[in-house]
Amino acid sequence: MPGLSPMSQLLELPLQTKNCLLFSTLQESTFGAVLDMVTDRVSTAALLVLLTHFYKSHYGLFLGLLALDISSHWLQMFSTHLSSKASHKDMGDSKSTLLRLYYQHRYFMGYCAIGAEIAYILLYMLAADGNIGSPYEVARHAVAERTVYGIVLVIALPGCAIKQLVNLVQMKTAADVCVRYDTHRYSSKSQ
Amino acid sequence: MEDSAVEDSPKQSNWPIYLYIPNLIGYARIIANGAAFGVAFTNKELFAILYFASFVCDELDGRFARMFNQKSTFGAVLDMVTDRVSTAALLVLLTHFYKSHYGLFLGLLALDISSHWLQMYSTFLSSKASHKDMGDSKSTLLRLYYQHRFFMGYCAIGAEVAYILLYMLAAEGNIGSPYEVTCRSIGNGTVYGILLAIALPGCAIKQLVNLVQMKTAADVCVNYDYARHNSKAQ
């Protein structure tokens, strides 16, 4: 499928940056924002599907990452919507310390998000190059050999890991928002 | 399946929402799905049983929510998310079992994610803007579709059943493209073949509806911006 090969994903990054700049300066649109979101979700999903093929023995790991990506972003979107409906006083500050820290540092956020994508693409490249084994073995091997892939992987993997952690925390806080939304609706009705 | 609207009648005030019975059933559904996909490559009968169990949970949680007056927003979202993830996982399975037609199932996955995401977003936007601004952007096909709940159910279930049958056929050793495998099983008049003949039209219509919904949802996004801009200009 065009546009989904990892090389084209890497090449897309500058284009996405340019789009982001355009978005913020000239032609913001809701449709554009949604298009962007959806493309992110689908391309990450497709990349993870690729990895279930290239690391078939660890199929569950990448399927789990796919489930986490879909769930956490879906829950986040829903809780953002609920938060915009209720007043801020009602919703309370449901964000955890980790999330507050995370969102205050936009570059750090970017590093984590890009780190995840790069880690996935590198794992694909390593497998497609003929490296056999589990993703852990392949990663360790590349890092030990200090190839270009290995070095970039060392830089990207911590970001990837943090992103997954943040995804998990966001699922919990987003679920709390849903619960609080209902609790508030009923306490305001009974008044 | 839970409705997305929460009922207005009074409910148990102290029972924590995370422990509502329909939500407990929702957790069981997730566990059943996780276990199912864990054995998908090694034990197809167990996969079918577990996936069917999660399907039963999906039916039960809505009923229990109404029965025990335990509808919750969290429950509705849990339901939606579990639907999306289990359909995605099933399609990932099919990219493995029909590797030559990997693109077809990846495309169906992209369509499922995109159309539901856009629908969700456009529903949010519609609830923010007034109906006067949004206009009636639904197409005739969608209006028809939504007026017939049982037909909707048939299409949605048809898609899931078609995917599971394709998995079962491949796991049993049927080789070839999904089209060949389907034609062969229908031609042979097997149970799978007959079910497939019933389910596939529903599956096809569901994909068509997904496509149309992407377009109408995108229109909602565009209309939302126009309405905001017009109201600013006044």
UniProtKB/TrEMBL annotation, chain A:
GO BP annotations listed: phospholipid biosynthetic process
Keywords from the named record: Lipid biosynthesis, Lipid metabolism, Membrane, Phospholipid biosynthesis, Phospholipid metabolism, Transferase, Transmembrane, Transmembrane helix
Gene Ontology CC terms, in alphabetical order: membrane
Family: Belongs to the CDP-alcohol phosphatidyltransferase class-I family.
Primary subcellular site in the record, as a coarse category: membrane
Superkingdom of this protein's organism: Eukaryota
Keyword check for Transmembrane helix: yes
Membrane topology: Multi-pass membrane protein
Compartments where found: Membrane
Catalytic reactions of this protein: a CDP-1,2-diacyl-sn-glycerol + myo-inositol = a 1,2-diacyl-sn-glycero-3-phospho-(1D-myo-inositol) + CMP + H(+)
Protein's recorded name: CDP-diacylglycerol--inositol 3-phosphatidyltransferase
Transmembrane segments: 57-75, 108-127, 147-166
Listed GO MF terms: CDP-diacylglycerol-inositol 3-phosphatidyltransferase activity
Catalytic class of the enzyme: transferase
Natural source organism: Physcomitrium patens (Spreading-leaved earth moss)
Enzyme Commission designation: 2.7.8.11
Automatic annotation (TrEMBL), chain B:
Any GO MF annotation of the entry: metal ion binding
GO cellular component: Golgi apparatus; membrane
Membrane topology: Multi-pass membrane protein
Keywords, comma-separated and alphabetical: Lipid biosynthesis, Lipid metabolism, Magnesium, Manganese, Membrane, Metal-binding, Phospholipid biosynthesis, Phospholipid metabolism, Transferase, Transmembrane, Transmembrane helix
Membrane-spanning segments: 20-41, 151-170, 190-209
Cofactor dependency: Mg(2+); Mn(2+)
Catalysed conversion reaction: a CDP-1,2-diacyl-sn-glycerol + myo-inositol = a 1,2-diacyl-sn-glycero-3-phospho-(1D-myo-inositol) + CMP + H(+)
Domain of life: Eukaryota
Top EC class of this enzyme: transferase
InterPro entries, per the entry: CDP-OH_P_trans, CDP-OH_PTrfase_TM_dom, CDP_ALCOHOL_P_TRANSF_CS, CDP_diag_ino_3_P_euk
Alphabetical GO biological process terms: phosphatidylinositol biosynthetic process
Cellular localisation: Membrane
Similarity section: Belongs to the CDP-alcohol phosphatidyltransferase class-I family.
Name of the protein in its database record: CDP-diacylglycerol--inositol 3-phosphatidyltransferase
Organism of provenance: Physcomitrium patens (Spreading-leaved earth moss)
Gene (name only): LOC112281718
